[in-house]
């Protein structure tokens, strides 16, 4: 949800995507998943296509993903990312991608969220499958899904807050709960303004309060994971989300895009990963002392 509407690379994301913390043997699967998700998202975000054409192309993308359509069957859609993902991923990975397609279809036909519950339901398709894919890829337990879901939903809401102006102006989408906007007397058209009105600011702050609760739910995740690499990755992402939420509380996302600088991202992410590693080592040492071989 950016202007101009071009595909975002991994290096341009707010949070690490397929970083060096991911084991080398798993990176091709992560790259294939990400490329397919981005390609499908670009279809849903294309301002030159109407809703019917977006749905048609997403259906064909899904058919290629599941093996029902040859990559050369439709010149207007690049199905390569879908066929490559099908070749790299297992059935669970493909299933997580198909849930993302559900969210992209929502974007094409229903560009509003009635309330917070509708927004989090949307995030359950648009964001949570990414975390579940990574957990499954690393052989983690399904018991960790709730904490991962909370983190992914928080990340998605933060991204929506960052891009709330562009989403409205370019795509006529609003991811702020409609009932909260009405309650605070904020009109949709205010999202096209040069800065947040008092009512709109209250809605943004209300969303950020919910993000804080989601991040608190996600906080135990890094120490629960068996994979040290994934634990460090999740710790870095959690810390970056907390830092971005703090910036959004202090700055107006309509006045300018609120984001962390690359040096800040590196410092926050590295510090969190190192802290997580130290805590895991300390916990392992305590366990060894209590249960000697």
- Give the class from helix and strand content and strand pairing: mainly alpha
DSSP E strands, number: 0
State the major sheet. Answer: none
Number of helices: 13
* N-end to C-end Cα span: 54 Å
Mean pLDDT: 91
Portion in beta strands: under 5%
Q: Can you tell me the overall shape? A: globular
Helicity range: 55-70%
Order of H and E elements: HHHHHHHHHHHHH
The radius of gyration is: 20 Å
Pfam family, one: SQS_PSY
Organism: Thalassobaculum litoreum DSM 18839
InterPro entries: Isoprenoid_synthase_dom_sf (IPR008949), Squ/phyt_synthse (IPR002060)
GO molecular function, one term: transferase activity, transferring alkyl or aryl (other than methyl) groups
Question: Can you walk me through this structure?
Answer:
The protein is an all-alpha fold. The protein has a domain at 23-110. Helices cover 66% and strands 0% of the residues. The chain contains 13 helices and no strands. The chain starts with 26 loop residues before the first helix and ends with a helix. 40% of the residues are buried.
